[in-house]
Amino acid sequence: MAGTISICNGQSTNLTFTFTGTGPWNYSYSDGITTFPAVAAVSPANVSVSPTATTTYTLVSVSDANCTGTVSAAPVTITVDDAPSVALGVTASIGTVCSGGTSDIEVAASETGVSYQLRNNADNSPVGSAVAGTGATLLLPTGALTATTTFNVLATRGVCPPAQLTTTVTVTVAGAIDAGLTVTATASPICEGTSSSIQIAASESGVTYQLRNDADDSLIGAPVAGTGGTITISTGVLSAATTFNILASNGTCSIELTNLATVAVDVDPDPALTVTGPAATLCTGGVASILINNSEVGVNYQLRNDADDSLVGTSVAGTGGVIALSTGALATTTTFNVLATGGVCAPVELTTIVTVTVAGSIDLTLPVTADQTVFCAGGDTNINVANSEVGVDYQLINNADDSALSGVVAGTGGTLVISTGTLTASTDVSVLASNVSCAAKLSTVVSLTVNPSPDLSLGLSALSSTICFGTSTAIQVANSEVGVSYQLRNNSDNTTIGAPVTGTGSTLSLPTGGLTANTSFNVFASIGGCSGQLVSVVTITVLPSGDPLCAPVNNCATVVITPIETPARVVPCYPMVR
Q: How many CB atoms lie within 10 A of CB 111?
């Protein structure tokens, strides 16, 4: 039983049951809700079905004149598409356009999964490209018009017959307005929360100009009358970049000016972000990190000495998360502030200032090395701290945000070996040293490169777990990862079977080849320099030569079920999924 087919809601299709063995046959099947009782049949047997939703049909039982067969036919899924609604509202954004102007045909409450094609109603010729429904109003451009035109909209979903929406719309063409006027923004970019203006050069007397948001043609402010010269229309307050168009009207017709104007908007920095420094006193000569939580994308953050606002290091771009600003080596207690700058917006000093107290000393120049600096995701390495000091504690931290990577280890006077723990991404590792007086990072930062690893927990299954002597099946890898190579192997000695297959994001099938004995299989996955054996192992049972279930005569019934559109396939005597 195999295959997939689609029908439109309200239509029917046939399931075709093709049997082997000796008739007459009895079989039953299920649609996932109801099991239909066993009925006598000839081969092939056709059953008409009319599902109203996507349905998977499975074989429940089968028997012939000799015996009861083993149910192993694969399921058939029938996908049901709903016909598109033809009663949607259809209107024109501009009912009367000037010669050469354009309008948009608006389809209200468009349906997701439906494609809408604008057509000239005179001959149903397509206008522009089809547009996918979104659940909201769609805009279908008419293109430039030189004569009055009536439009219709053709809706299409899946295998259902295309349907023309009930409402047609006529766009009248009359009069003329110059649509080629120059349109510019007086200021761009601007700061978030402020406004700009759109200027129209050489405006025409007797024509009014309406500013609109080009994304949805929503109106902005009131129309402004042309003067013969340049006119200016305010954008209103903006919080994001916006593109504007202009609708020109003269009482006879309307037309959208050809030129658009875009106003870019820079982020106005939030001064109330949380700013923190080290919790402990910093050792003399140590370097601290000033952390900013919820940094804003589009904003740069500059650390400054609060005594004179002198710059400390270079500015760091916001990421939306935590960022760290380095103080550099400090010899005395210092107070810091942070200046945030967002494009053309006025720089803002964050409200919170941080004082780093400096006292005490620790040797911060100790050698720091890693056992390995490149390894696979899910692995770890050891960081070695030579000549550790007695009375000093050492801890691995992520240099990006000072988060802990290990527990605290007491110095011994010799080399300390501290594990990073499992890492899944490349990481810069620092060592935080502390004693009763102060704490500071050792001078050396170790950069660890962590390469992606294949997911070894993917599910494995057999297309058929029991097969006849000398036949083959396939081992399936569910949810294979794109870019990962999968190699089938004999689990007894890891000999490779066939060629490796690259993951696609969906299920892969790895052929076993012909088998003459029970065999267990594993799959070896690799990407780049990272690899591993998937956790699951699959065993295939091979029936001996001459087994009654594999004999050429007097075999029990088997069955293949297919939609009528799919050619029937007769399987070998032993019922199994192919």
A: 19
User: Of residues 404 and 576, which shows the higher confidence score?
Assistant: 404
Instruction: Please answer whether residues 543 and 549 qualify as being in contact, where contact means their C-beta atoms are separated by less than 8 angstroms.
Output: yes
- Check if 90-173 and 275-356 are the same fold: no
What is the distance of C-alpha 174 from the center of its chain? 47
CA distance 362 to 389: 8
Confirm or reject CATH 3.40.50.150 for domain 183-266, answering yes or no.
no
Average pLDDT over residues 176-192: 96
Domain 90-173 top-level CATH class: mainly beta
Whether domain 368-451 has CATH 3.20.20.70: no
Question: Can you give the pTM of this predicted structure?
Answer: 0.67
Q: Which residues pair with 539 in a beta bridge?
A: 520
**3-state SS assignment for residue 70:** coil
CATH numeric code, 275-356: 2.20.130
Lookup result for tokens 């953050």: 301
| pLDDT tens per residue across span 48-84 | 899 999 998 888 888 888 877 666 566 788 989 999 9
Residue 140 above 50 pLDDT? yes
How much of the chain is helix, strand and coil, in % rounded to 5? 0, 45, 55
Handedness of CA 355, 359, 365, 370 (dihedral sign): negative
φ/ψ (deg, to 5) at 549: -70, -15
Read off the tokens for 67: 């015996």
User: Over 70: is that where the pLDDT of 560 sits?
Assistant: no
DSSP letter at 478 equals T
Looking at 105-244, list the stretches that DSSP marks H as alpha helix, in order from N- to C-terminal side.
Answer: none
Q: Which CATH number fits domain 460-543: 3.40.50.150, 1.10.510.10, 2.60.40.2470, 2.40.40.20?
A: 2.60.40.2470
Give me the pLDDT at residue 37, please.
85
What residue type is 573 in one-letter code? C
Q: Which fold, 1-81+548-578?
A: Immunoglobulin-like (2.60.40)
CA distances from 213 to 104, 240, 241 (A): 14, 12, 11
CB atoms within 10 A of CB 436: 8
**pLDDT band with cut points at 50, 70 and 90 for residue 40:** confident
Q: Given the structure tokens 């903006």, which residue do they identify?
A: 238
